[in-house]
């Protein structure tokens, strides 16, 4: 609306200055419309550069995420730029589980991504997005042609994953997958894993000889997971 008003005020100022026979009245009206023209320009510039008539609004939402690679608790990210400080995280949600392309965080310098580990069994993202929105319908109508409502300001994504999740770059994930397929690595992990589990069960049996078979199976399962996590971390540490 303000853009249309600028054109109207300019046209009226010109008309009254040129075509009105009563020059005294014409110049008076011209002055009024020039003032309105300049004021409208000021409002438009204020909206464009200082977000006049707008306010910052932050919306928060939390949604569940899934790993990109099925069968593994893996959160991937891709470093951006030469410094690698900016990162784009790659994940899926229940809604995009079978989609061709995974979800990603916004590639923007005003996007902050954090990762928090915990004991939670459900991986999720707490997302806070701040945008410029018009304070009321009057300002929205006044600047409706500016097309800047809901303009993005910043976003913070806090990924909350379990302690058993791995957070790797896409390059590290590819190298890790290749390592895990190596027969020598598989043989070594099998041998070391069996020894690790055997030792864990022996220690628990020594502390509590009356363990039931079901309890022993739980100990074995826990020890296997611990060894796999430990061995995987050692492999990751050796990657470039």
Please characterize this protein's 3D structure.
The protein contains 6 helices and 8 strands. By secondary structure, it is α/β, with parallel strands linked by helices. The chain has a 4-stranded mixed sheet with strand order 1-6-7-5. It has a 4-stranded mixed sheet with strand order 4-3-2-8. The relative contact order is 0.12.
How is this structure best summarized?
By secondary structure, the protein is of the alpha/beta class.
Unreliable spans are none
Instruction: Classify the beta-strand content into a percent band.
Output: 25-35%
User: What characterizes the major β-sheet?
Assistant: 4 strands, mixed
User: How many strand segments?
Assistant: 8
Placed side by side, the strands forming the largest sheet appear as 1-6-7-5
Spatial separation of the terminal alpha carbons: 57 Å
What coarse outline follows from CA principal-axis ratios? rod-shaped
Q: Which structural class do you get from the secondary structure elements? A: alpha/beta
**Number of distinct helices:** 6
Mean pLDDT: 87
Show the helix and strand layout.
Elements: H1 2-18, H2 23-50, E1 54-64, E2 74-80, E3 86-91, E4 103-104, E5 111-118, E6 124-134, H3 137-142, E7 151-162, E8 166-169, H4 170-180, H5 183-207, H6 213-238
Parallel strand pairs: 2-8, 5-7
Antiparallel strand pairs: 1-6, 2-3, 3-4, 6-7
Helix pairs in contact: 1-2, 5-6
């Amino acid at each position: 609306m303000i853009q249309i008003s600028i054109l109207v005020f300019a046209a009226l100022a010109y008309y009254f200055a040129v075509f009105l026979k009563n020059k005294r009245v014409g110049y008076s009206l011209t002055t009024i419309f020039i003032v309105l023209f300049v004021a409208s320009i000021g409002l438009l510039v204020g909206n464009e550069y200082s977000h006049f008539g707008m306010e910052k609004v932050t919306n928060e939402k939390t949604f569940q995420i899934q790993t990109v690679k099925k069968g593994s608790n893996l959160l991937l990210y891709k470093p951006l730029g030469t410094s690698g400080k900016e990162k784009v995280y790659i994940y899926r949600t229940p809604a995009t589980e079978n989609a061709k392309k995974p979800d990603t965080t916004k590639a923007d310098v005003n996007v902050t991504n954090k990762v928090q580990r915990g004991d939670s069994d459900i991986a999720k993202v707490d997302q806070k997005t701040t945008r410029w929105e018009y304070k009321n319908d009057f300002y929205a109508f006044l600047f409706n042609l500016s097309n800047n409502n809901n303009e993005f300001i910043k976003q913070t994504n806090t990924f909350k994953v379990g302690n058993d999740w791995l957070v790797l770059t896409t390059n590290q994930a590819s190298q890790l997958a290749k390592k895990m397929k190596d027969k020598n690595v598989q043989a070594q992990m099998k041998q070391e894993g069996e020894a690790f589990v055997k030792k864990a069960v022996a220690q628990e049996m020594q502390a509590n000889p009356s363990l039931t078979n079901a309890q022993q199976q739980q100990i074995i399962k826990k020890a296997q997971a611990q060894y796999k996590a430990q061995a995987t971390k050692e492999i990751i540490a050796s990657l470039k």
